[in-house]
Amino acid sequence: MSSAPVTLKRVGRVAQISFNQPKKMNALNLEIAAAFGDIVDGLIMGRGENLSDIGAVVITGAPPPAGKAAAFSAGGDLAWLKAKHSDSASRNSQIMRDFYWKFLKIRNLPVPTIAAINGSAIGAGFCLALACDIRIAAESAKMGLTFV
Q: Residue 9: phi, psi to the nearest 5?
């Protein structure tokens, strides 16, 4: 398995983007945001994959380690978010806008986007699933918006 925080795999005419930090339940942080944004930009700009050959993009979480629950994304990485409290409100506002924009780039893809919710999709992780055109959830999936 790749150690990249987000991976892109081609399955026929489908581009599968997987969050690849299952030990952290695919919690979203700057590293994952940057990698996800780069992959989506690459698809849009034709780097590595020819978008005209792709019929859909599926976003999911990598399979979990043995004995652990699956996660699409548990939302924001709490350690990263906690560290943000010491920063100024205006700086945090800009950081969070930039952070979310990297995920919302999927709205710029000219093909259907599908969230394959294979486990927990909480907070920002659920927001990403909602930004997709279609959501398909495992029976065991848990979804929620837990913002305060």
A: -135, 140
pLDDT on residue 77: 86
Torsions phi, psi for 137 (to 5 deg): -120, 140
Partners of residue 56 on adjacent β-strands: 14
- The per-residue pLDDT for range 20-78, each reduced to its tens digit, is 999 999 999 999 999 999 999 999 988 777 788 999 999 999 988 888 889 999 998 88
pTM score of the predicted model: 0.90
Three-class HEC string of 77-90: CHHHHHHHCCCCHH
The CA distance from 97 to 140, in Å, is 31
